[in-house]
Specification:
9-stranded mixed sheet; 418 residues
């Protein structure tokens, strides 16, 4: 098992000379894409600045290609400066196309996934590993089933009413009932979208194809991200490269790193320090499938790579991640004596948010889930904006977060350790 504690890090700091960081962000299955995530980041940065009296500004969003977008962030405190290039691996075109497919194709695919998770025992393994995640996954699957049940019930009631009050030729009442059922299904679509039913149930069948090593819609983003990561490392233009994979990105970001290592086996041995950061990862949700051979190979490769630091961030308050869980051995990957990753970083979302806001939004599943990549209401040992825009290496925060936070004064200056 990789270490989980607060050990001392001797990592260097930015100082007055300035620290340069390069971030490659791998999104989850979210149709809002680069534009939406840029707005989210800008909002998070402004929230962060309410607690940290420093200077920080995100430059404009620039769409570089169908695969990549970026924005630059300049941040500075009384005795430090940081320049961050924040690159975003785009998947929104693919995700939007998947979600726009006719529901007569999406629904059978999603129901097939539900049955697959039952007869392969994957759902039961998920419940053993993380009951809260199992309940969350079941919740979204049941919402789809209830949507279908409500539609069928509406059609049945319409057919019964026509049988009782109208004299119609044989079979017409059934036909009209079917029409009503379809109409009810369509009328409930906005509610289903609001509850993320389509988005979640669209994601998992494709993710399972990817996990099993079959051709999938995720192959191209992984390849594009890996090639860009190799370019970033070879450019040697930053002090630190951080590959961030939040939520569903926690499945793809390790794959990006593993593929980059195939393209350049010396990836983490030259140039900047390379960190893989997976906050709120749902990877075990697919990794626990007994046929997820591709995911297992990726996790094994990253787990034994000493030139890369993988940090897996987990929180109890987020039911959409696996809390207090070993993302290697827990999914059945035996990395043996060569294992050196990940460093598991347990954080508390309650400490990041104002008490009244936390009480109000505690059971907003996605709000808690996204806190991993948003700004805090108050200073805490985990602050995403400090990880990607602050003057200290991500490794130092992960290994000794409480003491690292204590290095900063009220005005945002930090005190160098002797």
């Amino acid at each position: 098992m990789a270490e989980t504690g607060d050990t001392t890090s001797g990592a260097s700091t930015s100082g007055e000379s300035g620290w340069r960081r390069h971030v490659l962000y791998v999104e989850g299955y979210d149709p809002q894409g680069a534009e939406g995530y840029y707005k989210l980041f800008d909002h998070a940065l402004r929230r962060f600045l309410k607690n940290w009296p420093i200077q920080a500004k995100a430059g404009p969003l620039k769409i570089d290609s169908d695969d990549l977008a970026h924005w630059d962030v300049a941040a500075s405190g009384p005795n430090w400066r940081v320049s961050t290039r924040y690159e975003f691996l785009r998947q929104e075109q693919m995700i939007r196309a998947n979600m726009a497919q006719p529901m007569w194709r999406q629904v059978p695919r999603a129901l097939g996934l539900i049955l697959n998770y039952l007869y392969t025992g994957t759902l039961f393994r998920i419940y053993r590993a993380s009951p809260q995640y199992g309940l969350a996954l079941t919740h979204f699957q049941l919402l789809l089933i209830w949507w279908l049940v409500a539609s069928a019930l509406g059609g049945w009631l319409a057919a019964r009413a026509m049988q009782r009050f109208l004299t119609l030729p044989w079979g017409v009442d059934v036909l009209l009932g079917a029409v009503v059922a379809i109409a009810v299904f369509k009328l409930l679509r906005p509610l289903a979208d609001k509850l993320f039913v389509v988005q979640i149930n669209s994601h998992w069948p494709y993710l399972l194809r990817y996990a099993r090593g079959e051709p999938s819609c995720f192959d191209h983003p992984v390849e594009a991200g890996a090639r860009r990561l190799v370019e970033m490392a070879r450019a040697n233009a930053a002090n630190e490269i951080v590959v961030v994979g939040h939520s569903g990105g926690g499945v793809l970001a390790p794959a990006v790193v593993a593929r980059a290592l195939e393209l350049d086996p010396a990836l983490g041995k030259h140039g900047p320090k390379l960190v893989l950061l997976t906050p709120g990862s749902l990877m075990p949700g697919i990794g626990l499938h007994r046929h997820a051979k591709r995911v297992h190979r990726v996790i094994h490769r990253v787990a034994i790579e000493p030139s890369i630091l993988w940090i897996d961030v987990q929180a109890r308050a987020d039911v959409l991640n696996f809390y207090d869980f070993d993302p290697v051995g827990g999914i059945g990957v035996d990395a043996g004596a060569l294992r050196c990753n990940p460093l598991i970083w347990i954080v508390r979302i309650r400490e990041m948010l104002a008490p009244e806001f936390y009480r109000k939004r505690r059971w907003d599943l996605f709000r808690m889930h996204y806190q991993f990549v948003m700004g805090n209401d108050q200073r805490a040992a985990y602050e995403y904006m400090m990880l990607v825009c602050g003057p200290l290496p991500v490794e130092q925060w992960a290994r000794n977060s409480a003491n690292t936070l204590a290095l900063f004064d009220k005005d945002g200056a930090y005190q160098l350790q002797a």
